[in-house]
Amino acid sequence: MLSMSPVSWLLALSPIIAVLVLMVGLRWGGSKAGPIGWLVALVVGVLFFGATPQVLFYSQIRAVLLSLYVLYIIWMALVLYHVVNEAGAIGVIGASIARLTGERTLQLLILSWAFSSFLQGVAGFGVPIAVVAPLLIGMGFNPVISVAAVAIGHSWSVTFGDIASSFQALIAASGIEGYDLAHWSSVFLGLACFGCGLAAVHAYDGLRGLRRSMVPILIMGAAMSVTQYLLAVNGLWSVAGFLAGLAGMVAGGVIARSPFYRGREREGVVVREKVRGEKLPGPLLAISAYLILVVLVTAAELVAPLHDLLNRVVIRVDFPAVSTNLGWVTDAGPGRTISVFGHAGALLGYSCLIAFLIYRGTGHYRPGVLGRIWRGTLSSAVPSTLGIASMVGMAMIMDHCGMVHLLARGLSESVGPAFPFFSPLIGMLGAFMTGSNTNSNVIFAPLQLATAEMIGISALVVLGAQTAGGALGSMLAPAKIIVGCSTAGLAGREGEVMRKTLPYGVLIAAIIGVLSWLVVNLR
Predict the structure, then answer these.
(1) What is the C-alpha to C-alpha distance for residues 352 and 77, in angstroms, rounded to an integer?
(2) Domain ranges of the chain
(3) Entry pTM
(4) Which of 434, 442, 466, 473 is nearest to 59 (CA)?
(5) Rounded-to-integer distance, Cα 167 and Cα 160, Å
(6) Short-list 287, 350, 392, 385, CA closest to 75
(7) Which of 66, 443, 453, 523 is the most exposed place for a label (fewest CB within 10 A)?
(8) Cβ atoms within 10 Å of 333's Cβ, excluding its own
(9) Between 260 and 520, where is the model more confident?
(10) Predicted confidence (pLDDT) per residue in 135-179, tens digit
(11) Which residue has the higher pLDDT, 415 or 462?
(12) pLDDT at 71 over 70
């Protein structure tokens, strides 16, 4: 059993402190801060937490699998972006949305909040931020704001996104039925939905932007949060995120077509189509790549025979149980399973191929397009690959040495009756470290459940706060920030984005913590 003391707790926290100081304080990029964080975790793990060569070896093999799972998406998302951009489609999409409404905050909400939540519902890890951020940049939004707005905007939808994989993990880790967990999870995530919409607009245009967009936020937020709640509590959590995002898009489109917003234009901002040597695609052709992606992902997830066919070939490694010199045991089990042909990265790849053939067949590429796509992808992917691999490696060392568990345990033991307030922050910690709400639920749901039972408070409220915090952690996770910066041409500037998202994520999680505490103490 790991001993708990202020010193051991701070030592467990030291890799996170190193990453935050370097990325947020000194504005280092993930490719530089990640290896330093990994080195700190390695040294602390060996010297103070009893990490053995066997523990380190298996932790890093697990990290390789998880990194490949993430990088599969990043590389293919980068290819898709360059396939679309080389055809001039990014500029056309931006101009089309600008013509739908000239109100910049509404444009931002439709893309960074509703459309990204829809993509999270059908695709999952990293896809929304990798796909939507370049669209915003193509419309003339600031690159750092573009990545931050999408990171913030879609995070509320993570728990029930990707066919509710994170919610399924919560069910499995807690042993509680989904029907029982769905209510408070949906309530807290619905609150987070409004918070994410408000935060995305505030990050872009401050209080002035909030005043201009309060009505759309209320209408779109109600459409998304109510849709998700009704579906989740009735057992349809596998499609709750997908249809909630769709409801938000429909609501946003209706608002954009209203006389009040149609034709409004943010002063001094004009979206221009890029002048090219060849003809530009029409709006429908321009978005065809993303329509193809949505159709393929939806079919792959919801059509059972196709889903089974695509997921027959998997990369799976079963790991033995390992123990540190201090007695912390990591149980035997499989690492991250990668479906070779059914993974989100593979579906992105299929979309790339089909879109490329369509754009080339309609004459929207200049000579040498393949070389430009390859060079553009490579220039962004290499630094991002280094950052993600090192961050994931750091997280796995901390997990296998018991450092992550010690952080949560120390927090839960020290706060006592105030524990419900900290439940979403614990979930956020797990997502920050692993880049995944699913992993956060797997790691911390049993601890949250045991602590709630020990204190004598509602486990359902605490677990709902846990998964809501884990979802919000997506906007802070270095692994996901790196994903967005990769496709946005901001490699090396991840710290700037994190400085934008960090205050909003912590604030929204704290509000959920207050509500969780009130619910527990007023029942």
Answers:
(1) 9
(2) 6-318+331-522
(3) 0.74
(4) 434
(5) 6
(6) 385
(7) 523
(8) 10
(9) 520
(10) 888 788 999 999 999 999 999 999 998 667 788 778 877 878 889
(11) 462
(12) yes
Q: What's the distance, CA 390 to chain centroid?
A: 18
Q: What is the pLDDT of residue 68?
A: 84
What the block records as the tokens of 299 is 């079919």
DSSP label at residue 322: E
User: What is the average pLDDT across 259-269?
Assistant: 54
Length of the chain: 523
Virtual torsion, Cα 336, 493, 140, 79, nearest 10 deg = -40
Q: CA neighbours within 13 Å on the CB side: how many for 98? A: 21
Report the SS3 class of residue 333. Answer: strand
**Closest residue by Cα to residue 409 from 460, 465, 461, 448:** 448
Alpha helices, H only, 87-142 = 89-100, 104-108, 116-122, 127-138
Please tell me the predicted confidence (pLDDT) of residue 263. Answer: 53
Report CA-CA distances (Å) from 288 to 87, 247, 292, 487, 512: 12, 21, 6, 19, 39
Rounded to 10 deg, the angle between the 30-48 and 53-86 helix axes is: 170
Q: What whole-number distance in Å separates Cα of residue 301 and Cα of residue 288?
A: 20
